[in-house]
Amino acid sequence: MNNKQLVSQQVIEDVTEWEIMHGVAFRQEDNTARHVPFSIAPMTMQRSAYQHLLSVTPLIAKLVSNVSEDHDFLQASLSDMAKADPFFGRLMELHQQPHGDASHRQQPARQPLLLMRTDFMDDRQHGAKVIEFNGIAAGMGPFGQRAAELHRYVENQWGEVYRNWLEDETAVPADNQGMEQLALGIATSAKKVKAHFAELGDCALEQKPTFLMIVQKDEDNVYDQHLLEIALQNLGIKTVRRTFEQLSAQLSTGDNQRLILQGVGAIDTVYLRAGYQYTDYWAPDLNEDICCQTLSQTRLFIEQHFVAMNATISQQLATSKSMQMLLTMMPSEEYARWGLSLEEAALVKSVLADMKPVSTQNIEWFNASADKEQWVLKNQGEGGGHCVFGEDISQTLAQLKPEEYDAWALMQRLYPHERDMPTIAVRDGKQSLVTDLVSEIGLFTAHYQGEPVTEQNGYAGYLIRSKPASENEGGIHSGQGILDSLVLIDV
User: Fold this and answer.
1) Which CATH number does 3-176+320-353+414-489 carry?
2) pTM
3) How does DSSP classify residue 356?
4) If 193 and its partner were Cys, which of 171, 239, 268, 431 is the partner (CB 3.0–4.6 Å)?
């Protein structure tokens, strides 16, 4: 089949222009915009499976939120991983400064705001299972909502094309208000912080509640970020953007541990879209003896102020792969420590995929008797490029030193349902036929001080990323993924 004849070029151009017009784009080095790759029609999921994810994901967020504030547990359970992974070792050092010594512990003034994306794959045999927790830089909520709007546009404007590529004509779109609900959660936290200072007689009350987004230098995923900022501005929130390097010279302390940004004033909420890798803290101009010390200390400085914050250092530790493994391996009864009932713990357990630590014994087992295609090897890295599959796992394990084992984990490999019919993927304005598309669904949640702050019990929309089953890297930004949305069927 000639791919050029699958859908008329007029449709492709119209929909890609819709994307650009609605901010669904990546910025290029020359300051032009490139549309985000997308599917021409949505993926299908059984309504019962989707409802299960809606019920369990806020419980996962509640669990992680409470674990993140259990500082003794974080220190005790992640110390070996911190020794094995230099970046998490640095995070643990930062965490220990305020939290390490229980006898002299001072709770940092920061108010935890957990904006989390929990990523799932719907495995053919085992059902929907968690891939990972994303507690820092958990982005693309706005793009998730826009994808649902894009498919609604295709249905309304190019109905025949939409129906041709829809798996089930009875399917109904799943509501997705990710952009507005995330903005609501953030705005709620900002207004609560501002109200706290109003009670203390703060004299800067004429200023709008103010939101600071910490971003990477020369960021290309800016439009997703700006869409969130616009939604916040619509709720009466002032938004500003800074890198860690800029903040290292611009922050100060006001009365009552108020965080002050030079040229702006008081800050109510801080949201990190950077900080999950060493390069976010690397400033060569500072000529430091210890890499990244100044900018990582800037992050700790923020935590010493009364400000709503995502992600706190504790939250980043609590959403690590090692913590995911520990929570997966422990008996569900132990979840009671963090406020979950046995019924809630069972729900969470139902979506956790098997994980095993990397140890001499498990390496011997893996090489001798494991079905290597049923496992994936992961390190602590965020984003694409941190997974090893199949026969390559043995090779990687053989190269690891024993002191590096605790930075890695083996996880049950998920084999999601392939779409029942082919679909059209559009990338750089060109279409291609994909016959083996599989999807990953990320559900967003928002909790402030452990309590839900959205209209749906903490749930805050979804992000669907689809990719050919033959591709291991499914990121929209860095892999072969395409933006997608969700329709539901009753079976």
Assistant:
1) 3.30.470.20
2) 0.95
3) E
4) 268
